[in-house]
């Protein structure tokens, strides 16, 4: 049973994240909602609880907190929800417009 509070979208959008003023790491954003997203971290430099900023396509920086890490998959929650128009823009740029499983 899916207990998430929001609809999530499968997307394929390039992004970047960084902790503080550190190095930026390129990632592929693959799951998005107005409250957060999921991506793979091939570098493995972040942990649950870390505060990061993330860019999703041409949007950002967006302040977020790492909620979970499973192997190299990362789930983050945005400090502020995305505006509906921003969410729609990102989905149009790289989304399948399908609800993520």
Automatic annotation (TrEMBL):
Residues 3-85 form the PilZ domain. This is PilZ domain-containing protein. It comes from the Bacteria. InterPro entries: PilZ_domain (IPR009875). It holds the Pfam family PilZ. SUPFAM superfamilies: PilZ domain-like.
């Amino acid at each position: 049973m899916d207990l998430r509070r929001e609809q999530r979208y499968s997307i394929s959008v390039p992004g970047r994240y960084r902790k503080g003023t550190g190095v930026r790491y390129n990632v592929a954003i693959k799951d998005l909602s107005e409250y957060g997203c999921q991506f793979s971290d091939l570098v493995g430099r972040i942990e649950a609880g870390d505060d990061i900023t993330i860019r999703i396509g041409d949007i950002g920086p967006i302040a977020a907190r790492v909620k979970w890490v499973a192997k190299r998959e990362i789930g983050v929650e945005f400090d502020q929800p995305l505006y509906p128009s921003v969410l729609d823009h990102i989905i149009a740029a790289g989304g399948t417009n399908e609800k993520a499983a």
